């Protein structure tokens, strides 16, 4: 709402566009620079803090290299989660939901459990590594496509029914996993449990050569679709009126979102409110409706939040294990505050 | 004249011969439940005693918990005017869990009673927050309500997870939340009788809930104190959910699918539907529990798992059906 009034006020401006209000462009670039600085500093801090070697020496870089992997994973996760969340919120025309609730996480748990259940410990070892990662991403994207294709197409296509069915399927899958977990032997369960608690430090570097190109392709496609997204954000009726094929565009964006979410979830496991937190902050920071401006801000915000949280937790509180839970907590609280302040859904 | 005929028709509707049939079916299921188990109660000398210690309490618990959760769902759906609302899609169960956890941490020696009070208090506050939120926020789509409720539940349960992780209770938390009748024994389930009292109150106040379900304006117009009814309803839901969560655990989707199935067949009169809702709730819980007991004998699968699978399938079918009708 605020965005549209702002543009309405400034139509007469010669440089009317996403950042046409006086000072808006300057403010935007300031915010972007600040975020880049914060992200860069905390990222560098993660690499350099507690590094016994002097900065720049060969030993320093050896140790830093070991830590770089984590940093890259964080960047990939931030990229996936923020882009996916922003696009998802635009398509669903609702800024308080996240794609994570669509059952991706439960599917991840169900796939892991099923592989242990049906293949046993030996079969699991066979599936380890890159093929398993690819299979998982394929299954998740396939699941998403099935859901969208079935529920969004046809005469009765309805976005809200699709969302709710996604959530409920997630719940049902969770119960199926719980059922299978009950039937596992304790040793098999131990094997499984190690896989279910995903965190940034658990991500395997071997997956990155596949994960990064996938993300980049999906990300570039979303960037390329940014103008359509701007129109989609106006709602179905307006978008159709302006000549956009609403359903096709929605399905395409949701497909890209599902790739991003599948990569992120397969890489590090569940992160329900992280994307929401980053996207909500990004809307505040960016102050524009244009997705070409929102995306970079969201990406940098997500990266800063993630690196900062890890930096603070690792080096100030020495509580490495709870980072993702802290992010979830803060994200969840922001979610509640946003709902109550908004007053309208 | 018309009034007397409608009362007569209503009486007839209340005491339906079909209801008798339903009662018989449920009674048969309960008898099956009484005689299902690993321990051979006929072959052993202490069979009778075992029967009294485990089987009878378990079956009573099935009746009480099933009826209570189904009724909670019905009342909630009436009060919010939304068909997709129940304790698990509004976060009430998660709040109850958080309340229980809070009591466990602040008073490690607390007994069942204190835990229950904590659970009820938190469930009440949580449900009230949700109701207040529904009244304050303008909704464009009714399906948004359960989505928000589920996300709200996720926030609350992430708080519970965090607290549990900090206090090394994560494992016990998982065990509590998985609703199961396995641990229902004599001396541990009696609190569930509170739920029976809740059921009686719901029966007595049924018409008020129906009127409140028509909306604040209409309710006030016909002389019902809307806020008081909402308060009463929330209190009853919180008590039932709290007690069931502490004694049995989480019973997902029960409150959602039962009232919907009943009203699909019988329409929307709360008072005459109530007995059917209770019966169907009991029947579904009993069947799921029996299935959980039999499928990997001599072990058991928690009833919440079976209910979660079954309930999600039914829920999705309901959604698709509603979508057809628009």
TrEMBL record, chain A:
One of its GO terms (cellular component) is plasma membrane. It is found in: Cell membrane. InterPro entries: ABC_BtuC-like (IPR037294), ABC_transptr_permease_BtuC (IPR000522). The keyword Transmembrane applies. It is a multi-pass membrane protein. It comes from the Bacteria. SUPFAM superfamilies: ABC transporter involved in vitamin B12 uptake, BtuC (SSF81345). Its main location: membrane. GO terms for biological process: siderophore-iron import into cell. GO terms for molecular function: transmembrane transporter activity. The keyword Transmembrane applies. Residues 1-10 have a biased composition (Polar residues). The chain crosses the membrane at residues 28-49, 70-88, 108-127, 134-153, 159-184, 205-224, 253-281, 293-312, 318-340. Residues 1-21 are annotated as: Disordered. Belongs to the binding-protein-dependent transport system permease family. FecCD subfamily. PANTHER family: FERRIC ENTEROBACTIN TRANSPORT SYSTEM PERMEASE PROTEIN (PTHR30472), PETROBACTIN IMPORT SYSTEM PERMEASE PROTEIN YCLO (PTHR30472:SF19). This is Iron complex transport system permease protein. It comes from Naumannella halotolerans.
From TrEMBL, chain B:
Gene3D superfamilies: ABC transporter involved in vitamin B12 uptake, BtuC. Keywords: Cell membrane, Membrane, Transmembrane, Transmembrane helix, Transport. One of its GO terms (biological process) is siderophore-iron import into cell. It is found in: Cell membrane. InterPro entries: ABC_BtuC-like, ABC_transptr_permease_BtuC. GO terms for cellular component: plasma membrane. Belongs to the binding-protein-dependent transport system permease family. FecCD subfamily. This is Iron complex transport system permease protein. It comes from Naumannella halotolerans. The lineage of its organism: Bacteria, Bacillati, Actinomycetota, Actinomycetes, Propionibacteriales.
């Amino acid at each position: 709402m605020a965005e549209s009034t702002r543009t309405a006020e400034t139509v007469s401006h010669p440089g009317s566009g996403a950042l046409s209000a006086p000072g808006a462009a300057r403010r935007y670039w300031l915010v972007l620079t600040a975020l880049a600085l914060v992200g860069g500093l905390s990222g560098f801090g993660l690499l350099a803090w507690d590094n016994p070697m002097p900065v720049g020496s060969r030993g320093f870089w050896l140790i830093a290299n070991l830590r770089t992997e984590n940093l890259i994973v964080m960047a990939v996760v931030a990229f996936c989660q923020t882009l996916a969340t922003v696009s998802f919120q635009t398509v669903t025309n609702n800024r308080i939901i996240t794609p994570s609730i669509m059952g991706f996480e439960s599917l991840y748990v169900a796939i892991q459990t099923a592989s242990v259940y049906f293949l046993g410990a030996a079969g699991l070892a066979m599936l380890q590594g890159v093929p398993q990662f690819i299979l998982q991403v394929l299954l998740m994207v396939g699941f998403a496509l099935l859901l969208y294709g079935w529920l969004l197409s046809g005469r009765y296509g309805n976005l809200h029914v699709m969302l709710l069915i996604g959530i409920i399927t997630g719940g049902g899958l969770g119960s199926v996993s719980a059922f299978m977990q009950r039937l596992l032997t304790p040793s098999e369960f131990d094997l499984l449990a190690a896989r279910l608690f995903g965190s940034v430090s658990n991500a395997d570097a071997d997956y990155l050569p596949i994960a990064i190109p996938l993300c980049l392709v999906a990300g570039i496609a979303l960037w390329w679709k940014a103008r359509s997204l701007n129109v989609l954000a106006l709602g179905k009726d307006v978008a159709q009126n302006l000549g956009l094929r609403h359903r096709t565009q929605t399905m395409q964006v949701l497909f890209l979102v599902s790739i991003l979410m599948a990569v992120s979830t397969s890489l590090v496991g569940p992160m329900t409110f992280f994307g929401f937190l980053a996207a909500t902050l990004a809307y505040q920071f960016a102050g524009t409706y244009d997705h070409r401006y929102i995306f970079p801000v969201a990406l940098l915000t997500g990266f800063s939040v993630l690196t900062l949280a890890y930096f603070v937790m690792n080096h100030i509180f020495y509580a490495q294990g709870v980072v993702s839970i802290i992010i979830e907590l803060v994200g969840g609280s922001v979610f509640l505050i946003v709902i109550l302040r908004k007053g309208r859904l | 004249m018309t009034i007397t005929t409608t009362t007569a028709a209503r009486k007839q509707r209340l005491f339906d011969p079909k209801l008798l049939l339903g009662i018989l079916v449920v009674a048969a299921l309960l008898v099956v439940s009484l005689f299902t188990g690993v321990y051979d109660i006929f072959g052993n000398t202490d069979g009778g005693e075992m029967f009294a210690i485990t089987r009878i309490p378990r079956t009573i618990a099935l009746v009480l918990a099933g009826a209570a959760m189904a009724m909670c769902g019905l009342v909630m759906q009436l009060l919010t005017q939304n068909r997709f609302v129940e304790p698990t899609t509004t976060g009430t169960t998660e709040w109850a869990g958080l309340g229980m956890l809070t009591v466990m941490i602040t008073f490690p020696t607390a007994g069942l009673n204190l835990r229950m009070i904590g659970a009820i208090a938190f469930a009440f506050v949580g449900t009230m927050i949700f109701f207040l939120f529904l009244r304050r926020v303008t909704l464009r789509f009714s399906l948004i309500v359960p989505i928000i409720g589920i996300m709200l539940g996720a926030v609350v349960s992430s708080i519970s997870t965090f607290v549990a992780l900090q206090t090394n209770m994560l494992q016990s938390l998982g065990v509590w939340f998985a609703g199961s009748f396995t641990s229902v024994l004599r001396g541990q389930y009696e609190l569930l009788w509170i739920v029976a009292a809740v059921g009686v109150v719901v029966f007595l106040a049924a018409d008020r809930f129906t009127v409140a379900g028509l909306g604040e304006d209409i309710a006030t117009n016909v002389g019902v104190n809307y806020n008081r009814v909402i308060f009463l309803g929330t209190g009853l839901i919180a008590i039932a959910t709290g007690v069931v969560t502490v004694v049995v655990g989480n019973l997902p989707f029960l409150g959602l699918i039962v009232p919907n199935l009943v009203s699909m067949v019988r329409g929307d009169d709360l008072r005459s539907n109530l007995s059917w809702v209770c019966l169907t709730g009991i029947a579904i819980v009993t069947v799921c529990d029996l299935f959980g007991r039999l499928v990997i004998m001599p072990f058991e699968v928690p009833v919440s798992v079976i209910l979660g699978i079954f309930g999600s399938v039914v829920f999705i079918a309901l959604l698709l059906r509603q979508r057809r009708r628009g």
